[in-house]
């Protein structure tokens, strides 16, 4: 059977799709580029926020409108988990729906066995780049009042250690130079098995299992859960980059209380643990602006906190109410124009801090991981390739523009010549000839 799979949403959904594809390929089904070549069209949806919901439904509707007689349309993932009836009402022609995490059932319904992790090299790196995501757990036990994820994904469940090591080895064999560890809550890894510091232990095993993967990177740590052991492990392992993403969501304790998130003191403690143990650590965070009841003075506390902590990378979202979450029904919903205005102020501050952090890199030497297939030409007519340094995560942070012509996946020693608000300008450093 030929299938065409469309994946919407976040990096974690990309990993889910990859696992589904591994099962489909294991069942000898063949991926095709175009939907009209397929016998089976699969859509892995996202239902996290309204915009993602609308995009998922629009995509399914378009695929349905253009499909040939006899082509099956199957819709799976987060949106069908929480709003199956709504999806079916919007597109009545759908042949079948499955919720999130039902990979076994989906695979079985099309005659493929799951639990196969024989991901062929061609399936690798995300979007054809030398990086891949490794999802180490799914689901979440935290009580954040704005978030629908625990309803969609259920309790936190860690991926079996042996499976994660096998996946990492397969990525390494296929040429990945970077593995980005993701989860809803990375620092909870192992807690469902009664383990403490499970993430640090997993990192040690991964680091030894894939020594050729130069960068292991951690995204989505929970404030207050960054232990000294974790920070020391990050510092000690040669192929774990000194980088951590800790979504903090706000800088006012009153708002954090309404969000049912850890206090600012806990957030500060996690940042301090990282800064103490990990030299040159790069810290990324995200904030939500316009949470119900957010006053101008609470928002100013957020600005002050962001400025004080000077995060190297700062992302922001405007709050979007989710039906079925406690915050969706809270009084004091903030008008859209106020949210947008605050978002603009926060992003402006984030840009200023990021520029200062990039400027501090000028003159220093770093490795650049080349991501472009072909060089482009700079304004002065020189060839330039696009990549990233350890300071930037794929898809969410900045880039490094490197003079010269290098193949995708090369790690090139370079000096930082210039800084833009989000990106770095680099030149290769001549490698001394030995002997
Ligand atoms: S920790 Fe993250 S995934 Fe879990 S409930 Fe909070 S926001 Fe949602």
Q: What does the model show?
A:
This protein has 435 residues and is an alpha/beta fold. It folds into three domains: 2-109, Rossmann fold (3-Layer(aba) Sandwich); 124-359, pyruvate-formate lyase- activating enzyme (Alpha-Beta Horseshoe); 365-428, Nucleic acid-binding proteins (OB fold (Dihydrolipoamide Acetyltransferase, E2P), Beta Barrel), CATH 2.40.50.140. It is built from twelve helices and 19 strands. The strands form four sheets. Strands 6-9-10-11-12-13 form a six-stranded parallel β-sheet. The protein has a five-stranded parallel β-sheet with strand order 2-1-3-4-5, with helices on both faces. Helix 1 runs parallel beside helix 4 (103-109), helix 6 runs parallel beside helix 7 (198-209) and helix 11 (296-309) runs parallel beside helix 12 (336-359). The longest helix has 24 residues, at 336-359. The radius of gyration is 22 Å and the shape is globular. The model is unreliable at 114-127 (pLDDT under 50). Iron/sulfur cluster binds at residues 140, 142, 144, 147, 149-150, 184-185, 222. The site of iron/sulfur cluster has 9 residues, from helix 5.
Instruction: List the bound ligands.
Output: iron/sulfur cluster
Taking Cα atoms only, what radius of gyration do you get, to the nearest Å?
22 Å
Query: Spans of 5+ residues with little confidence (pLDDT < 50)?
Result: 114-127
Number of strands: 19
Per CATH, which architecture of the largest domain? Answer: Alpha-Beta Horseshoe
Number of helices: 12
Distance between the termini: 57 Å
The proportion of residues in beta strands is 15-25%
What is the typical, i.e. mean, pLDDT?
90
The helix fraction, in percent, is 25-40%
- The CATH homologous superfamily of the largest domain is termed tm_1862 like domain
The computed structural class is alpha/beta
The tally of structural domains comes to 3
Strand order across the largest sheet: 6-9-10-11-12-13
Major sheet, described briefly?
Answer: 6 strands, parallel
General form? globular
Oligomer: single chain
What would CATH call the class of the largest domain? Alpha Beta
- Which fold name corresponds to the CATH topology of the largest domain? pyruvate-formate lyase- activating enzyme
């Amino acid at each position: 059977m030929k299938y065409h799979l469309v994946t919407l949403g976040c990096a974690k959904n990309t990993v889910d799709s990859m696992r589904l594809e591994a099962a489909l390929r294991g069942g000898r089904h063949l991926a095709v580029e175009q939907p009209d070549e397929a016998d089976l069209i699969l859509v892995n949806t996202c239902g996290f926020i309204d915009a993602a919901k609308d995009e998922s439904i629009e995509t399914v509707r378009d695929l349905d409108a253009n499909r040939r007689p006899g082509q099956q349309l199957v819709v799976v993932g987060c949106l069908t988990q929480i709003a199956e009836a709504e999806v079916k009402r919007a597109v009545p022609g759908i042949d079948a729906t499955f919720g999130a995490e039902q990979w076994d059932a989906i695979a079985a319904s099309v005659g493929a066995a799951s639990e196969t992790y024989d991901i062929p090299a061609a399936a690798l790196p995300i979007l054809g780049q030398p990086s891949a995501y490794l999802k180490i757990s799914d689901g979440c036990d935290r009580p954040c009042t704005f978030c629908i994820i625990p309803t969609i994904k259920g309790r936190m469940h860690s991926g079996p250690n042996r499976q994660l090591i096998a996946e990492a080895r397969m990525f390494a064999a296929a040429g990945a130079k970077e593995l980005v560890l993701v989860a809803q809550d990375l620092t909870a890894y192992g807690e469902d098995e009664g383990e403490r510091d499970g993430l640090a232990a997993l990192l040690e095993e991964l680091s030894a299992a894939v020594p050729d993967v130069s960068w292991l990177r951690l995204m989505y740590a929970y404030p207050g859960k960054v232990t000294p052991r974790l920070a020391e492990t990050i510092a000690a392992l040669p192929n774990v980059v000194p980088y951590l993403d800790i979504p903090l969501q706000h800088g006012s304790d009153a708002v954090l209380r309404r969000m049912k998130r850890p206090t600012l003191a806990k957030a500060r403690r996690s940042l301090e643990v990282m800064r103490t143990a990990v030299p040159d650590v790069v810290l990324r965070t995200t904030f939500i602006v316009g949470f119900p009841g957010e006053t101008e003075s609470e928002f100013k506390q957020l600005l002050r906190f962001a400025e004080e902590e000077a995060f190297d990378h700062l992302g922001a979202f405007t709050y979007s109410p989710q039906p079925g979450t406690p915050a969706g029904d809270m009084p004091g919903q903030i008008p859209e124009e106020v949210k947008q205005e605050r978002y603009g102020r926060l992003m402006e501050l984030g840009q200023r801090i990021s520029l200062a952090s990039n400027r501090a890199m000028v003159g220093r030497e770093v490795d650049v991981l080349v991501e472009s297939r072909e060089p482009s030409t700079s304004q002065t007519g020189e060839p330039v390739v696009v990549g990233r340094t350890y300071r930037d995560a794929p898809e969410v942070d900045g880039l490094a523009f490197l003079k010269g012509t290098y193949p995708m996946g090369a790690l090139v020693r370079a000096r930082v010549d210039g800084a833009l608000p989000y990106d770095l300008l680099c030149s290769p450093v001549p490698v001394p000839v030995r002997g």
